[in-house]
Design brief:
The complex is a heterodimer. Helix content of chain A is 24%, strand content 20%. Chain A has helices at residues 9-18, 31-38, 44-56, 58-74, 79-84, 97-107, 121-128, 183-194; strands at 130-131, 134-135, 152-153, 205-206, 211-214, 227-230, 236-237, 244-247, 253-256, 264-267, 273-280, 283-288, 293-297, 302-304, 313-318, 324-328, 333-336, 344-346. The radius of gyration of chain A is 22 Å and the shape is globular. Chain B is mainly α. Chain B contains 15 helices and 2 strands. Classes of the chains: A alpha+beta, B mainly alpha.
């Protein structure tokens, strides 16, 4: 990744000169459009028009750069940032022994002995546990297959619709089940659970909601917080099972090319993800909060699709890299047949029981 | 009520009550007519003269930040509690954004001027003209307020810079006063080659480049704007740079410049802004297609 201190000033100067022509205020996108562009809410046509204009317009370039700078400044407390943060980050973190145990169980979902290339396993745990904003260092957790404490629902993110709940999403029932055992056990459990769930395309998985685990009173830091939220990895396998993707504890998408033995961190999506599907080896779709849809299509890499809706998307099915259907928490289904550039709301057929 | 909104409401009988409930209009005692007028404006802004299907209009309305839209409507109507909430919830964010955009000294003035526009100190036909009339709910209110701040600051700065032509002219004259007679010719040749190569880029590639280099945006920010991952932005920036280098090398060779002249031209350009362009080219030299870099800056081979 190119770092800011390695920028080519002559190139920058030439670029600025090329864009310095005086714009006509009538042709510039208005503030509302710029804001919607920044939030990824324009249609593909609107976005293309913005890109073409701003590539030539110094005024709009400066405006969008200022918006970016302003959001960076405001990000710790901004609504948008809070809304786009993975749901587990809204919880207060603590370091009770029970939490370590549950995390250990979660980590046990990975094949034994696997360590992320750029982060030791124990450090990964430490990154996931925070005490009042400070990181806690823990020894490498022991993998256990029992003693998962009772779970409660975490509060939904402030200012956003709640993620899928047990009442609205049959698969959310998985959140209540112990997350133990190696990948093979988990696959079996998922197969069992999918028998009771609405059909999804091969490789699809819906993310259970975060779980809140009551802290044990014996823990030194228990007084600092009452609960610990543990996010579960939203792992998606390609039909060939070698290519896999998952959402890490800090919300980043990671990919594996060797069936989950090693993982490479890719990027942090702009909002929490609730569902994923891989209809082909180099194709993956993820859907999540506030209409977020991400698509990986071979060499094109990851790209954010146009949001079909502002509602949370809790399921996604896909036939290939261009055709997919995303479902909102309310049950509305949006279909794309152009790789996520545009979406069509599927009108449900009339009920046969209605007169 | 506009035709589009009426058609959508007829196609889906509970559309407007559902939107009003989601917007929590009752919290601000917002009359239905005022809320519907805001929806009307938003639909007209989005679709203009197009004639979308009712279901498309309904989906658009469902995608709006309705709670923010109701708050903006109530503030535009002068609802005291709505204003109290706005000031309490958004003023600190607005000030923080203004600090980031205009610096700590100018931030309070910038934020206050936006608040004045939001309130609508100007009147037309005896009515306050609140800036909130131009909030359509397509983005969150927080992002829209940041965009308002950004544009206001940029416009003010650009207007100010137009008042200082003599200083700029003096700077340019100082830059031109160079002892080496070849310097203007070589730098102009190189700059023209770089400019031509940039002009040949498509709009999206040029936007990536200009936002990163000229506007100092982060790759993650550019990625969010263009709907790409940070890694994709990084990869594409690298590819564009390689393409540019190849094109510049070809253009300079076509001008008849030899390796020595080209090397001097880059040196002159670097003298003007001593940064790590050569380092950048050296890095690129180690890549498989680095032959063009050697053509641009002879003597960097093997470094």
């Amino acid at each position: 990744v190119t770092t800011p201190d390695r920028r080519d000033e002559p190139l920058a100067r030439t670029l600025r000169d090329l864009s310095s022509s005086e714009p006509s205020a009538e042709t510039c996108p208005d503030v509302s459009t710029m804001a919607a562009w920044w939030e990824g809410r324009l249609t593909p046509e609107e976005r293309a028009a913005c890109e073409t204009h701003v590539a030539e317009c110094a005024r709009c370039q400066e405006t969008i750069a200022a918006i970016a700078a302003a959001e960076d400044e405001a990000s710790p407390s901004s609504d948008r940032e809070a809304a786009s943060r993975p749901a587990w980050r809204h919880a207060v973190w603590a370091v009770p022994a029970a939490a370590a145990l549950v995390l250990a169980t979660w980590l046990g979902l990975r094949p034994a002995g696997i360590v992320e290339p750029d982060r030791p396993a124990a450090e990964g745990v430490a990154m996931a546990l925070k005490v009042e904003g400070d990181e806690a260092r823990l020894p490498a957790p022991e993998v256990r297959q029992e003693a998962v404490p009772p779970v409660d629902r975490a509060e939904p993110p402030v200012g956003r619709p709640a993620p899928p709940t047990a009442s609205s999403d049959p698969l959310a029932a998985r959140a209540k089940s112990p997350r133990t055992g190696p990948v093979e056990d988990r696959s079996q459990r998922m197969a069992d659970e999918q028998a009771a769930a609405p059909p999804l395309a091969r490789g699809a998985q819906r993310a259970p909601s975060p779980q809140t685990i009551p802290a044990t009173p014996q823990a030194p830091a228990a007084a600092m917080a009452e609960s610990v939220t543990v996010a579960t990895p939203l792992e998606v396998s390609s039909p060939g099972l070698e290519r896999r993707w998952r959402v890490s504890l800090d919300g980043a998408i990671e990919g594996s090319k060797d069936g989950g033995r090693t993982w490479t961190r890719d990027f942090i999506p702009p909002a929490a993800l609730y569902a994923g599907v891989s209809p082909a080896d180099e194709v993956c779709w993820y859907a999540g909060a506030a209409g977020l849809v991400l698509r990986l299509a071979g060499e094109e890499g990851w790209a954010r699709a146009t949001a079909p809706t502002r509602s949370d998307l809790v399921a996604i099915e896909a036939a290939d890299a261009v055709t997919a259907t995303a479902t909102t928490r309310e049950g509305l289904r949006y279909t794309t047949s152009d790789g996520g550039r545009s979406w069509t709301l599927q009108v449900p057929p009339p009920s046969p029981f209605q007169p | 009520m506009d035709d589009l909104l009426r058609a959508a409401a007829q196609a889906e009988s509970d559309l407007l009550p559902r939107l009003a409930a989601r917007a929590d209009c009752r919290r601000w005692e917002l009359p239905a007519a005022a809320f519907h007028a805001a929806l009307d404006r938003s639909v007209r802004h989005r679709f203009g003269g197009a004639r979308p299907a009712a279901v498309e209009v309904a989906a658009y309305l469902d995608s709006l930040h309705l709670d923010d839209l109701a708050l903006a409507c109530a503030c535009a109507d002068g609802h005291a509690a709505a204003w109290d909430h706005l000031v309490e919830a958004f003023r600190p964010k607005l000030l923080a954004a203004a600090r980031a955009i205009a610096g700590p000294d100018n931030a309070p003035e910038l934020a206050d001027s936006v608040f004045a526009d939001l309130y609508g100190l100007k009147e037309r036909g005896g009515e306050r003209q609140s800036l909130f009339r131009y909030f359509y709910g397509r983005s969150s209110l927080a992002t829209w307020l940041r965009a308002v701040l950004a544009r206001k600051h940029v416009d003010a700065r650009r207007a100010e810079s137009r008042l200082r032509p003599l200083e700029v002219a003096a700077e340019r004259a100082a830059e031109a006063a160079v002892p080496d007679l070849d310097r203007p010719r070589l730098v102009a040749g190189l700059a023209a080659a770089v400019a031509a190569a940039l002009e040949a880029l498509d709009a999206r590639d040029r936007l990536r480049l200009v936002l990163y280099y000229a506007r100092q945006m982060k790759q993650a920010q550019i990625g969010r704007l263009l709907g790409e991952s940070e890694a994709t932005v990084s990869r594409r920036l690298d590819r564009i740079r390689r393409d540019l280098r190849r094109r510049v090398a070809q253009a300079l060779a076509a001008q008849g410049l030899g390796p020595g002249d080209i090397s001097r031209a880059w040196t002159f350009m670097l003298d003007d802004s001593p940064v790590d362009l050569i380092q950048r080219l050296e890095q690129l030299d180690r890549r498989p297609d680095a032959s063009a870099a050697a053509a641009i800056v002879p003597g960097t081979e093997g470094t």
